[in-house]
Amino acid sequence: MEHKSANEMTALTAMPTNGHRAYFPGSMPREEAGDAGSVAHLELVRCIERLHRRYLDLFRVDLMRIGADDLSPAQVMMLFTIGPDDLSVRDLIDRGYYLGSNASYNLKRLVEAGYVERSASVRDRRSARIRLSDKGRQLCELVRGVDEGYHRLVVRDDGELRDLEITFRTLRRIEHTWTDALRSGEARIA
Amino acid sequence: MEHKSANEMTALTAMPTNGHRAYFPGSMPREEAGDAGSVAHLELVRCIERLHRRYLDLFRVDLMRIGADDLSPAQVMMLFTIGPDDLSVRDLIDRGYYLGSNASYNLKRLVEAGYVERSASVRDRRSARIRLSDKGRQLCELVRGVDEGYHRLVVRDDGELRDLEITFRTLRRIEHTWTDALRSGEARIA
DNA sequence: AAGGATAGTTCGAAAATCGATCTAAAACTG
DNA sequence: CAGTTTTAGATCGATTTTCGAACTATCCTT
Prior knowledge:
homodimer, mainly alpha, two-stranded antiparallel sheet, globular, DNA-binding
């Protein structure tokens, strides 16, 4: 938490539109063979990693503008993962694939900063019930407002809307595939 | 670096296929209005964040199996960002959207561990030339092999291949949009 | 009631992040 | 050419994050 942005040596100044090679699907050892030149899973993974890093930079700036400089991007995202629901920490963990201790850590900050309310469940007193506070909901509104700007930049016509939908659907499918793979992978160990 | 995996309280045990609500496009404050219920940019962002976290878990396990337990997932990804090329640190930074000091930090480890070779440029002696070593290339081969397994899980027919291509193309477009937004956003400040 | 599973937190060590320096080598500028 | 400014990149120190291993408290089973 607490970061003043204003990147120094970051990639900010230079887009991928840099000099030499294409860098598009070209920046990895041989790929001409095998998949007949189509996009490989690994390229997508790399893209996701890059996008994630990129969005963090962008989002941090936006959060600063909004005035939510007491939260890290990941913490704000966590607010959206909670959403309008009233859930247990376990549910939150499952939704966001968080590690238990990390979820606790971030949740603690969210509660301390007043974005999330926590109370003990009546039925099971081990279990905590979490939900957004008004402050939390307000922040979500603001973020959603900012995001609409990006939405408009990204989907400018029906074709792009359709692509976005396919993209979302595909990513969800991949998410599911990975989760399965992870589960069965661990099964061999356990 | 150095992590023994074997998550404890992680989401490993429970997929998003958990109890109560749908959670699909449902876990955020109101979205029925406006976009006519279609996928919003923000949902995609959240998905990317989740996928990133998820893949980290998966990849760490794979790296362990491969025997590359001296590198973090991000560092291995950096190898692919270097790819077959011979580039300067600046190029690497631009390609991967790294922060300068982080790139240095990771690069140092890659060089120390023998995956990357660095030498000074002849023309500009400030500039370093970076490239994969044999060891680095070998690791990339191994990872690529593992990845082919996931590729087959994810694209099982032509339709899915087409979706993957659209997804990749769309994500690249978004990446570009964000980079632009970030650049022009910072411009106002600078 | 005893033993085990579950929910969630806390702790300490390790690692990652970030911006501010800092060095060295270009590249300008007069 | 001396003087200044830029650029490439490494390094430093402070902060934040990540992770797994305890640990506490409650619940469930028998």
